[in-house]
């Protein structure tokens, strides 16, 4: 059983600054403020949190739900 990744790389859609953020273990994070341009990011429609929309990884709850279908991505 592969461990869940908790640290995601969020790419700001405005200034394209990449920042490392640790995902909350028990909830989704709806807002994220870009440390460079101070834009408050919100998830895209249909996404549950900013990590799913802008992060390098989907949030932990998504990772758990879709883990099996993403096993072939290495
Ligand atoms: Zn930014």
Write a structural description:
With 74 residues, the protein is of the alpha+beta class. Helix content is 15%, strand content 19%. The protein is built from two helices and four strands. Strands 1-2 form a two-stranded antiparallel sheet. Strands 3-4 form a two-stranded antiparallel ribbon. A hairpin with a 6-residue loop joins strand 3 (32-33) and strand 4. The two termini are 14 Å apart. Zinc ion is lined by residues 12, 14-15, 17, 34, 36-37, 39.
Strand order of the largest sheet: 1-2
Name the helicity range. Answer: 10-25%
What's the domain count? 1
* Ligands, deduplicated: zinc ion
Number of helices: 2
Q: Can you summarize the main beta sheet?
A: 2 strands, antiparallel
> Cα-atom Rg, whole angstroms?
12 Å
Mean pLDDT: 86
**3D shape:** globular
Report the sheet-strand fraction.
15-25%
């Amino acid at each position: 059983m592969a461990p869940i990744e908790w640290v995601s790389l969020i790419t700001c859609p405005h200034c394209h600054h990449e920042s490392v953020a640790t995902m909350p273990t028990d909830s989704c994070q709806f807002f994220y403020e870009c440390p460079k341009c101070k834009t408050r990011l919100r998830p895209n429609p249909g996404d549950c949190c900013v990590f799913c929309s802008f992060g390098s990884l989907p949030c932990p709850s998504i990772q758990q739900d879709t883990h099996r279908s993403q096993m072939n991505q290495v």
